[in-house]
Each structure stands twice: as structure tokens, then as C-alpha cells.
Amino acid sequence: MAKLSPLGLLKSRAFRLLQYLALAAGLVAVPLITLPDLDVPARVLLNIVLWCCLAVFACELAGKTWLRSKSVQSESHYLRSSEGVIDLLAVLPVPLALLIGIPASTAWLLASLWILKLAILVPGLSMLGRVIHHEARALASGFIIFLIILVLASVALYLLERAGQPDKFGSLPLALWWAVTTLTSTGYGDAIPATLAGRIIASIVMIGGLGVFGLWTGILATGFAAEYRRRDFIRNWDLVTSVPFLKNLDPPAVIELTRMLRRVDLAENTVVVRRGRPGDCMYFIASGEVEVKVEPHPVRLGAGAFFGEIALLTGAPRTATVTTTAATTLLMLEVTDFRAFTAHHPELAKAVEAEAAARRNRSGAPKSHARGPRLVENSEKD
Amino acid sequence: MAKLSPLGLLKSRAFRLLQYLALAAGLVAVPLITLPDLDVPARVLLNIVLWCCLAVFACELAGKTWLRSKSVQSESHYLRSSEGVIDLLAVLPVPLALLIGIPASTAWLLASLWILKLAILVPGLSMLGRVIHHEARALASGFIIFLIILVLASVALYLLERAGQPDKFGSLPLALWWAVTTLTSTGYGDAIPATLAGRIIASIVMIGGLGVFGLWTGILATGFAAEYRRRDFIRNWDLVTSVPFLKNLDPPAVIELTRMLRRVDLAENTVVVRRGRPGDCMYFIASGEVEVKVEPHPVRLGAGAFFGEIALLTGAPRTATVTTTAATTLLMLEVTDFRAFTAHHPELAKAVEAEAAARRNRSGAPKSHARGPRLVENSEKD
Amino acid sequence: MAKLSPLGLLKSRAFRLLQYLALAAGLVAVPLITLPDLDVPARVLLNIVLWCCLAVFACELAGKTWLRSKSVQSESHYLRSSEGVIDLLAVLPVPLALLIGIPASTAWLLASLWILKLAILVPGLSMLGRVIHHEARALASGFIIFLIILVLASVALYLLERAGQPDKFGSLPLALWWAVTTLTSTGYGDAIPATLAGRIIASIVMIGGLGVFGLWTGILATGFAAEYRRRDFIRNWDLVTSVPFLKNLDPPAVIELTRMLRRVDLAENTVVVRRGRPGDCMYFIASGEVEVKVEPHPVRLGAGAFFGEIALLTGAPRTATVTTTAATTLLMLEVTDFRAFTAHHPELAKAVEAEAAARRNRSGAPKSHARGPRLVENSEKD
Amino acid sequence: MAKLSPLGLLKSRAFRLLQYLALAAGLVAVPLITLPDLDVPARVLLNIVLWCCLAVFACELAGKTWLRSKSVQSESHYLRSSEGVIDLLAVLPVPLALLIGIPASTAWLLASLWILKLAILVPGLSMLGRVIHHEARALASGFIIFLIILVLASVALYLLERAGQPDKFGSLPLALWWAVTTLTSTGYGDAIPATLAGRIIASIVMIGGLGVFGLWTGILATGFAAEYRRRDFIRNWDLVTSVPFLKNLDPPAVIELTRMLRRVDLAENTVVVRRGRPGDCMYFIASGEVEVKVEPHPVRLGAGAFFGEIALLTGAPRTATVTTTAATTLLMLEVTDFRAFTAHHPELAKAVEAEAAARRNRSGAPKSHARGPRLVENSEKD
User: Fold this and answer.
1) Three-state DSSP string of B240-259
2) In this predicted model, what pLDDT tens digit does every residue of C249-268 receive, in sequence order?
3) Residue B116, Cβ neighbours under 10 Å: how many?
4) Residue among D115, D188, D213 whose CB faces A151 most closely
5) At what angle are helices A196-241 and D196-241 packed, to 10 degrees?
6) Contact D154, D176 (CB under 8 A)
7) Contact, B56 vs B19, CB < 8 A?
8) Which of A294-308, C237-251, D183-197 comes out lowest in average pLDDT?
9) Which of D356, D379, D282, D275 is nearest to D317 (CA)?
């Protein structure tokens, strides 16, 4: 039914919504269909839902493959990228399983692979992969400590408890199962040491489990902090150099500022600052447009402009409400960083003050002091 | 009974205490009233307590609404602020539920919403919100990994265990329940895999749970550290610039000092330093007043003064006890930071030494050396 | 039996050992005496042990009180210090309990307060207290989130499960008990939600529990890192300024070096570096004495000297074994920090090289190059 | 069968593989042999596997001992090193146990000590040991808090619950067992307090457990971050100074760069960068060789050269695929760090640009601008 313009369809908002809907519906329907006491109508309904979801994903896969094959400059093949593999895993396994004769109730379990599609939707996952990659050695060390405690503890418990509880600790694999549930602090309670020595060793295992856990956490926290700083820097660098006002600073200052700014992506018609609220940051517009609601008539600011600086310079509350008129990317500079930065680079503070004063004059406000603390935060930039 | 001056009443210490008391009493009474074997007098008593608490919260709501409506300059409506919503949720639900015919024992459960009032009392909660907001993407990545492990593990366990334990793993929702309790390391022990393959997968899930947990912790630790630094800086900046002695430093030095100082809020009649104790910090008075208990007659120091510097300069123990005479805000500079700061900015050390010497002369102490190591820590500032 | 010289006795090594022994014996005996099936001889023996421990602690308390009362310059009373209170709690409760007629088996449980003596032995505990004190607000925020989840979840579970499991969720206190065991991921498994809605809410509670846990960990990690830096700085500062070689550096360099050095306390006759091992740090002697085992005859180095620098300058393995001849405090400078420091402060590297060369000449080694890579690491300092 | 050339055999890849295989087979066979319902053929097979593993480890031990005894310059004895002790523990215990008459099923449990061999394979474990060593005092403080909560909580629960549940809380050791499982959040559920007071104390213990856990995690995270930085610095320093291009920078710049570079070890025939992919880092070759697949004929770059700089200078995607032709160690400089470094040290950027331009000219590319954005990333270095 959508053979005419697959390109437009695939990129349309409606199809995106349909994808999300199919994913949500599918991930709810898969568990429900396994309920043993379903009546026939419900089972039929769930099957329809699942087939529809599969159809949506198949359309998506076909569309993406067709689009990518058309774009000549892309050299890497879509179906060999991680996204392509996940899309294939979403579409092929269920029909294949049905074809080779696996009963439907089992075959549809393969639809649980749809959960992998979440990994495409969230961009942060690749960052996580980098952290785990960089810290692989340290994490492996922690895992080996885990294994050593596990094996030695389960041998000890097997020796101590096999006589008293042969059904729980009668072989080393059973003792290993106990050790895993204990060392991860899961504690099912299906196997519990009964001898004094066994309980003392179990206590050491539990405390050791906390230690291993703490180790992993520490390693991941350290790695994550480093990776986060790095990613923010890359994302901000291009934005900073796209603001004429900022890119004229000398290079070390640009580096410093890039580390301080925080990117904010806003949809259309979002309120950025609200009049009368306390203000603790100013904004540079990297792309998009905002409207400043000032008294005579509202003014619009485009990419490269800044606003919200009065709250930083005077400590007064916000003097005007600012809303976005299009999807806008802002760079937020917090008061902490503004003060720290301008202490070492007073030229930014001067430039901000000069531009703010110039704008006030141009917008015809006779004397900002005469109007008391309610200054116009920003005027039109032309 | 307090219709005459709601303003005074609301701001009074007694009403604050009453609020805390009502909150504590209410949060104890709500669980107690659900006990099935209560006798009639106890039930009556608890009902009276609950109605009293409700009355206190209603008075608070009415008073705050009335006060805010009077103050013209406030533009944002109180009842639409988060504080107002919480106050409304504390007062309205129970009467409304009783009105529409819900039995009292169930209606009073809505009084558990009073716990939300704790969120108003503690200011740090907004900071937490900021951390979660800033780290939302990273936390979402961690959550998606959690979901992927959850779904794949429960499908595997459902396939492996449904034959042997149909009551525990007989459907995917049951297997998902097992996976959640295992992946969060809760480990109720109501559903336990019995097959070897099931137990191996369960072990991987447990270890993966520790990893996801470590991930969240690492993200939150990183975000919290950044937010904490930022908030302290903002709080300290205004205090530092209110101390004449400090604000004359050059801007980079003020920034550095702002990062080092720690704000200390003290009530009236609190001992700040005690004579004879080792001293590892000095204090600047941002607001309030302290009394230095020196021999001839105690002296008082007001906002802008400093004390405790002798312990830093000489390493001797505290030479006098200092107590606050009013609610006082101090800025504490630890010996670590004092030394690090004065190494780069010797002018502060010199100024502190000069002022300390000047004070000794003015207060008539003939020669501080003659009195041995027991120097007066601070003298009157005029 | 030790009336003659309590001072000598209290400070003696033997009495210290006796204290540790009494603490260990007491903490083992207290649990054992509660075993219900003890025979009479064992009970008598344990009673003797406990009374002996109590006698040791009483002697310690009496001795310390007497010593402190003699030392006039100490103004703070021993029995009001935290150490004194712990010592009192170790001695008084058991006899008092026996006097007022509590049966011996219960009275001796008060001897479990002896565990508090561990807090005196380990100095790091006060640091922990500082961290918790500084982060109190943030930790309280985390605790309030914990409480809000706890109360709302238990109300929901009470409503959902009270019909099906009146013995597990039949009142709000029972539901709160379930919520605590679940939110802390303890998971006893005594109360388990059975309805679908209850299990979904329980899953949210479990995941929320991980979040709260991560929050606390993040706050404590941040606070601990700051406090650790601060304490090390204070401990190292006095040591650095006691080494003549280091204290002549300009103040910013001293600050930097203080942050880099790590204090090492060693007992008599401990091997510090071993010949032939790779070396990645050098040492400054803050106090004590070491012996360098060089060929003609070993030389001794006292406070203010340094050794181990050749491994840093040349990358060769350790050229001589160095052992302490008395209790010694060393300041360790790792190769990382040595290189980073000397990059900005080349004077230290030059001074180290000059002194090393001078020593070689003085100790009569004709040409260090002639002897190949086995240089004497340090020679006598006079 | 390998008496002829033990040296070659021990260092050969085949023997390494055999070792890994023996370790894996042994660690699987040890648990299996304890299964009570094994039939005779399986038991015989497992015994053969275990004896083979033991033989491999014995050969390894003999070979290493013989090799080390030959190398005169090594002064430390192999069998007294930690590696030697682990190798001995892998070989001796089982035969010794069989000799003194322990039944085979028990004696083979000692083969679980083979797990310790994992600690040799992973180099990161020594770093972990350093962290724990450095943070020993802080971790001990956390452990003492753990012990104090443990003892006081179990005394309280013993008093409160012994009347109601004498089989669960009838003695202090039983109560201690409950406290350990609860404080570590394991929660077996075998002993559960039933009184109100007992449950309130249990709740405090559970929350305290989270706190202690957070404390340990915080300490380990802090220590790990410091140790990690230190180790990377040492590993990178020698590599940086082996690249002629980098070691001519002034010392503070070398220090800074050493902190930024990340070491990457690659096997032969590994793709380093792929044409058309976005590039966010450049590489310096510390050792080994890479081949740049450029159009006329591929060029090779050896130790001291760099590549991948065009993506950093222009932001264009990778212009050529680069693969290693031998085992290669690279130093990766990320775009973040490249920009931060060249902002303060513009000489590196200039040198990189100059060398890149020179190479293009030498390799005969007439004008790189003429060919559009597809520049050769690197040309031959002679």
C-alpha cells in the first residue's frame, strides 16, 4: 500500500510513530501469547498484532535496504552494519522458524529479539561500548577475582556441607550454583550452609561479593567520567566554532569554553527562560531561532546571537520570557563557568556587556536604568 | 483559633514545629490505622490524630495561598508551583475520597501522599533532579541494556524451565518476573531455575545485574560530582564578594578562593572553635556575629571579619573559644587550601598576618611573644 | 598487680598486646556464651575469659584516667572525650546490669559494646565521619527519595495484595516491611506480590532501589575523594617541610610536591628496595634511618636524605638493597610524579643528580660508568 | 616427548594454546567429577583429562624452572616468585594428597587451585593489588563500621526474637548469621525477624548495608582512578620518548601529551582505520609497521611515523584504509586532546601540517586540493 514513495514514507513522522508503536505492541504481545490460559479470540488478536508488527519491521528493512543501495557514495553495506543486522534479526527468525516446522508458540518467542531495536534508538549505547572496551582489562581483572572466590568458596562449601545436605551441596556444580547466588548477593535461599565453618566461609563470600561489586562500579565510574568529558567536547566543538561571537577568542580560550558549554536541544515553541524567574545561565544560539517577548513588540534572535546575559551580569531575575520558534540548539553557559571564564578572559565579559548595551540603544529603550531592574534581556540582532 | 494574624502565625517557629509534628504523627498514624486487630478506642484516637494533621495542612495551604495572593510582585501562581501541588495533594484527596463514598479505611491511605512534603523540606532534592536530567541519556542507555538482558534471559529461561516447573516458568510474564528479581539481585527465591543450562544463564544474568548496577552508579557518581561543584560555587560566590577583605583580590584569585571555601551555617550560641583544640581551618564571617572569649574581656566580630588564622599561621592549638551570638554564616578555609592558595597568592597570607598583628596591637596586648603560644586568636574589629 | 608503675605498664608493648588479646577473646566469647547447649565447664571457662577481659579494660580505663588527670596542660577531660566514653561503655554496663539483678546471660550481652573499641584503634573512622558530615544534605536527599518510594509502593501493594494474601500484605506495616526488604534488594522472599499489577510495581521498586543505591554510592564516592586529598595533604605537609632538600623549593612547588608524595611508615629491619628489582619510585627520609647494602661497606642514611633516585634517572633496576634500621617514615615519589614535577621544576632533577654524583665521588667510587649499570644507589650523607 | 628443545617448546604458540586448553578442560572436569551419578566410562574419561592437565602443568613448571636456572642474570628465584608458587600449587597438592591416602574424589578437589593460574594470565591483577594496598586504611574503616553494625544489630535481634523463634535467633551466633546475610543484602530468607521492633532494626541494618557498600565502592572508585592514571603514564612515557617527532617537544608538553595518548596494541593484518569512515583520532607508531592503501601503490609507515591526521585537520572522513603488517603498538591521540593540546602548543599542529604537506608533495600528488576531499592520509616516509 506504500509502494509509490518509500523514501518519503520512511522519513515521515508517521512512519517513525508506527515503528515505535509496533515495537511497543510487539514487546507487550510476545509475553502475553505465552500465557497458558488464553481463550481463542485473545490468541487470534495477539497473532494479528504480532504479524502486523512483523510487517512493519519488514517494510522498514526493505525500505532501508532499497534507499541505501541507491545512495552511491555510501561504501559500507547497510545489511552488514550493526543496524542492518538488528533489523534482519527482527524480521527473519520468526518466518524461518515457522517454515522449518517449529510450533507457532515457540517460534514467536524469537520476536523477543525486537528488543534489540531499542539499542538503535538510543545513541548513548555506543558510548557505553567504548567505556567497556577501554576498561576491558580492568573489568577482566575484577571478573577473575570473582571467579577465584567463586571456585575456592564452592570447593570449601562442598567439602563442609555435602555430608549434611547432599541434595543442596552434593556435587561441585551445586556448590558453584550456591556460590554464584551468594557472591552476587542475590541470595535465593534455596541452598544455605548449615555448619559453623560453612557459614563463616559464606560470610566471607558475601563480603567479598560487595568488594567485587564495588570494584566493578569503581572501574565503570572512572571510565564513564573520562568518556563523557570526551564526547561532550566533540559535540560542542563544532557548535562553538559556528558562533561567530565565540570563535574569535584565542584557541586556548575556545578549548576552555568548549568544556564549559552544555548543549541543549529544544523543540519548537518551548519556553527557554521565563520572566521573573531567577537566572543562573546565559545561552548562545547554535542553530534555530528564539523569540524574546519584550514590551513594544517581540524580537527574534537567530543563530549566532545570545540571550539571558543580564541575569548573569546583574543577578536580577529574568526580564523577559524567551521561547523557541523552531527546533533550536542552544549552548548553555552557567553562571559558575561564566564567572570562572571571564576571570581569566575578561574580553568575553566586555564583549557581552558591549553588545548588550548596543542592543538596548538600538531597540530604542532610552535608558535602561530609568526602567529599574526590568531590563530587556535581548533585542533584535541584525 | 488563629484567624487574627495568619501571616505571623505561618512564619512563627511554633507553626513550623506544628507542621513537623503533624507530618511525623500523620506518617506514623497512617500505617497503624490499617492494622486489622485494632480495638475501637485506638481507632478513634488515630482518626482524631489524622483529622488534626489534615487540619494543620489545610491551614498551611490556606495561609500560603492567601499570603502569596497578597504579594503583588510574585507573578507565578503558588498553587501551580511544585510546592503548591504537593500542599494540595496533602489536603484534598482524603476529603474527596470520603465524599465520593470510598470507605474511610481506604480513603485515609491517600494520606500517605503527605510523605511528599518531605521533598519540600529538603532543598537538595532539586539538585538531584538536575543530575538525573543532565544524565538522562546515559541512564536511559543503562536501562535499555537492563531491558535487553531482561527479555532475552526470560525467553531463555521460559524455554528451558517451562517443562520442569510450569507453575514458576510456565509463561513469559512469569519468566520476566523471575528475571527482574534476579537481575536486581533481590532474589526472592520463589522461582529458581533447576536445569543446568537455566542455572548457567541465571548466573550470567546475576553477573550482568552487577554490571548494570555499577553502570548506573558510575553515571550518577560522575553527574553528582559535577553538579555538587557547580552548586557550591554559586552559593559561595555571593558570600565571598560580601567579605570586603576577599573581594579586593584579583578576579582569578576570587574564583579560586570561591572553589575552596566551604559554607557553614550556625545557630545562635554555637561553639565554633574551642580553646586548646588543634586547629586546621580559619573562618571568614559572611553574616552574623561571633564572640571571642579572650582574657581581659570578650570581643565581638561582625560580618567581614575573620578569625582562627593563628592556628594556620603557627600550627599552635586554638588560643580562644569562639561562639556565635546570632545566627551566623561562616566561610571556612581549610589549612590545605590556605597553604595552596597563599603559595600562588602570597598577598592573602600577608594581609591576614598584617591584620592579625594590627589587631593584637590595638587590643593592647603588649607583646604576643611574651605570653607564649597562647595568642589571642582575634581582637575587636572596628 | 600493676600498682607500681601504671604509666610504664600502660605504654608498654605487652599491655597493648594484652588489650588486643582481650578484645579478640571477648568478642569471641560473647557469642559463644549464648549457645543454649553449652556444658557447665565450657560456661565456667567462658565466664572466666569474660571477667578477665573486663578486668583488662577496667585497668586500662583506670590507668588512662589517672594519667590524664596528672597531665595539667590537657584541658579537655578524658572521660568526656569520645575515647573515654567508649572505654566507660566497655567497663560499666555489665557490672551495673548484674547489680540491678539482670540475669548473667543477658547482662554479658552488653559486652558486645566492646566492639566500639575497634573504632578507637582505626584512625580513619574520623575521616569517614567528616565525609558523612559534609555530605549530610545530599545523603538526606537520597534518603527522602528512598522514603517516598517506600511509602507509595507499600500503599500500592497493600491495596493490590491485601485481598489475596492477608497474612503477608494485610496491613500497611506489613507492606512497609515488604517494601524495605525489596527496595534494599535484600529480598527475603517471605512476602511476594502475586497479582500482575503488584509485580509490575514491585519491579519498579527493585529498579528504583538500584537507583537510590547508586545515588548514595555516587555521593559517598565524591565526598570521599575530596576528603582523602585533603587529609593526605595535611599529613604530608609537615613531613615535606622537615626535609631540608625539599623545603628550599619555592612555595608553589612545595604545594605541588606535597600533593604528589605518599607517606610510608615502616618498622625496623624492613626491606625498602631490593637489588635487581625494577624501580619506579624514589624515597625521601622524613624520620628514622636506613642502611644501603653497598659493596665496600654498607652506608647509613638519616632523616633528610634520599635514595632510590638512580632507577628514576636511568631506568636501570635497583642497584642496592635498602633496609630500615629503625622505625622510619619515608616519602615516596613515584616515577610518574617525578617526571611531571621535574618537567615544570627542573631544579629538583638537577639537585638530585648533583647530590647523587657528589655522593658517588665522596664514597670513593672512581667512576660510576666504569662499573656498568650497577651503581651504588646512595652513599653516606654527612 | 618434548625433551629435545624445552626452550622452543615452552615459548611456542602451540604450548601456550595447550596451556589454555588444559586450564579450561581442567576447570570444567573438576566440578563434573564430583557429580554423584556419573557412570564408570565418564569417570574414567574425566580422570584421564585431569591427569593430562596435571601433566601439562608439570611440564610447564619443570620447563620454567630449568629455563630460569640457566639465565644467570636473574637473581630472584622463580619458585619463590608469586608465579612460581601458583605453578607449584597447581602441580603438587593433588599427587601429595593421593600419596598420603586421601581418596581420589577428594584429592582432585585440590585441582580447583588451577583457577589461580588465571591471575598470572591477566596483568591487571597487580594493579588491583596496589589499589587495595593504598586504600587499605580506608577499606578497614569501612569494614569496622560493618562489624559494629553487625554485632550491635545481632545482639538486638537476639534479645527481641529469641523468645519467638528459638530455632532462628536462639543464640548470638545464629543472630550474627542473620545479620551477615541481611547487611550484605543477600537475604536468604531462612531467618526473618517477626516482632515489630526486630523488623524496624532489620530495616536500619538493610539501609546501613547499602551505606557500607556505597562507602567501599566510593573508596575503590577513588583509588582506582588514581592508580589508572599512574599506570597509563608509565606505560606511555617510554613509548612517547621513542617517537622522534614527539620527544623534541619541551618537557612540560611531553608530560601533557603522555597523559593524553592512549596505547593500542594490534596484531598483524588488523584494520586500523577504514576509508570513508568518520575519523576522530590520529595515530603515532611506537613500534611495528602499517600499510596505507593509497591509489598508485600502497605505502608503508614504520615506527616514529604518524597517520590519520587529515581527519583531525579537516574533519573529512578517512581517506585511506590502513592495516598493520606486523604486530604494532600505536599511540592514539583523540580529536579532543589534539585540539586541547595544539591550542597551548601550536608547534605540534604546525609540524603535523608541514609533514603531511611534505609527504603529499613527495608522493607525487600534484595538488591535494585538486582531488577534492579525498586526500591521501599518509604517504611513504623515508
Assistant:
1) HCCCHHHHCCCHHHHHHHHH
2) 777 777 778 777 877 778 78
3) 18
4) D115
5) 50
6) yes
7) yes
8) C237-251
9) D275
- Reduced to 3 states (helix: H, G, I; strand: E, B; else coil), residue B165 is coil
Rounded Cα–Cα distance for residues D27 and D19 (Å): 12
- Contact criterion met (CB < 8 Å) for B189 and D188: yes
Of C186, C187, C217, the CB nearest to A217: C217
The runs of H, that is alpha helices, within B108-250 are 117-121, 124-134, 136-161, 166-169, 172-183, 196-240, 244-247
DSSP 8-state symbol, A355: H
How far are the Cα atoms of B186, B298, D187 from residue B212, in angstroms, in the given order? 14, 59, 20
A101: left (phi over 0), alpha (psi -120 to 50) or beta: left
CB contact under 8 A, B339 and C237: yes
Q: What is the 3-state secondary structure (H, E, C) of A33-94?
A: HCCCCCCHHHHHHHHHHHHHHHHHHHHHHHHHHHHHHHCCCCCCCHHHCHHHHHHHHHHCHH
Residues C103-160 have pLDDT tens digits of 888 889 999 999 988 887 766 667 777 777 777 777 888 888 889 999 999 999 999 9
CB–CB of A214 and D213 under 8 A? yes
CB atoms within 10 A of CB B146: 22
Scanning every residue of chain C, which has its alpha carbon at the shortest distance from the alpha carbon of B223? C218
Chain B residues inside the 8 Å CB shell of D185: 185
Reference C131, options D218, D225, A218; nearest CA is: D218
- List the single best residue of C188, C195, C210 to mutate versus B (max B Cβ within 10 A): C210
d(CA D193, CA D169): 9
pLDDT in tens, C72-94: 545 456 777 778 888 899 999 99
Residue B165: how many CB atoms within 10 A of its CB? 19
Contact yes or no for D339 and A192 at CB 8 A: no
Question: Pairing relation of β-strands B281-287 and B306-307?
Answer: antiparallel
Buried residues in C267-294 as b, exposed as e (16+ CB within 10 A): eeeeebbbbbeebbbbbbbbbbbbbbbb
Look up residue C220 and give its amino acid: L
Residue A234 C-alpha cell reads as 566533540
Neighbours of chain D (3+ CB pairs under 8 A): A, B, C
Are B283 and B342 in contact by the 8 Å Cβ rule? The answer is: no
Q: Which three cell numbers stand for residue C303?
A: 632523616
User: 10 Å Cβ neighbour count for A127?
Assistant: 17
Longest dimension (CA), chain C: 95
**In Å, how far from its chain's centre is CA C21?**
20
Count of H-run helices and E-run strands, chain A: 17, 8
Which of D64, D57, D36 lies closest to D111 in space, CA to CA? D57
Query: Radius of gyration over alpha carbons of chain B, in Å?
Result: 30
**pTM for this prediction:** 0.78
Q: How many pairs of residues across A and B have Cβ atoms under 8 Å apart? A: 159
Distance between CA D187 and CA C180 in Å, rounded? 12
B105 vs D174: CA distance, rounded Å? 40
Q: Cα–Cα distances in Å, from D302 out to B263, D292, D298, D318?
A: 57, 11, 13, 20
The amino acid at B49: V
CB contact under 8 A, C124 and D147: no
| Cα–Cα nearest to A333, from A280, A376, A282 | A282
Please tell me what DSSP assigns to residue A379.
-
* Of B185, B189, B217, Cβ closest to residue D189: B189
pLDDT tens across A98-120, in order? 999 888 888 899 999 999 888 87
Q: How far is CA D316 from CA A255, B86, D275, D312, in A?
A: 21, 53, 11, 8
Angle, alpha carbons A137-A142-A144 (nearest 5°): 90
